[in-house]
Design brief:
single chain, alpha+beta, 2 domains, three-stranded antiparallel beta sheet, two-stranded antiparallel sheet, 5 strands
């Protein structure tokens, strides 16, 4: 059971963190805490028991919102790992329909529904045209609710469709 952290793309091996789709370090940076304190665990439990979906533990901050912005030199930055390199080895882009936006769309959907589902019938290309291409060039935020609504409108669920790495 190996997966990747949706935030940084690192390989996850510990089952509770694999189930959460986020690594311990990234979870700590987002303020995601285990539901049980480590010192309250029973001897037959490991330190990660009692964890659940990180979207439910974000303490008012939604880790599945996608933040797109430009650095001072104008380069595109996003809080999505560039885990899949298919169209644009130089990185993500938005605001038009090219290879950088396709790469961003593929990586976003892979993080949300799994790589296989994102690549099925190239659904990420439709996501690119519907959501990524219309983004203002200076950037913005794609809310989790917007992604879930788009998925529902296209007959997909926000749950990962497969357990394969993205």
């Amino acid at each position: 059971m190996i997966s990747s952290c949706y935030k940084c793309g690192r390989t996850l091996k510990n089952p509770p963190w694999v189930d959460m789709h986020i690594g311990r370090v990234c979870a700590a940076r987002l303020g995601i805490e285990p539901q049980k304190a480590v010192n309250e665990k029973h001897e037959d439990e490991d330190e990660f028991s009692g964890l659940s979906d990180p979207r439910k533990q974000s303490a008012g901050r939604d880790p599945f919102d996608i933040h797109l912005k430009r650095d001072p030199k104008g380069y595109a930055t996003a809080n999505v790992p560039h885990a899949i390199v298919r169209h644009s080895p130089t990185g993500f882009e938005w605001g038009y329909g090219g290879s950088g936006p396709a790469e961003l769309a593929l990586n976003i959907l892979s993080a949300v529904i799994g790589r296989a589902a994102a690549e099925e019938q190239q659904i990420y290309q439709k996501f690119k045209w519907d959501v990524i291409a219309p983004m203002p060039v200076e950037g913005g935020t794609i809310k989790e609710e917007q992604i879930e609504r788009w998925l529902a409108d296209n007959g997909l669920s926000a749950k990962k469709q497969t357990s394969t790495q993205y």
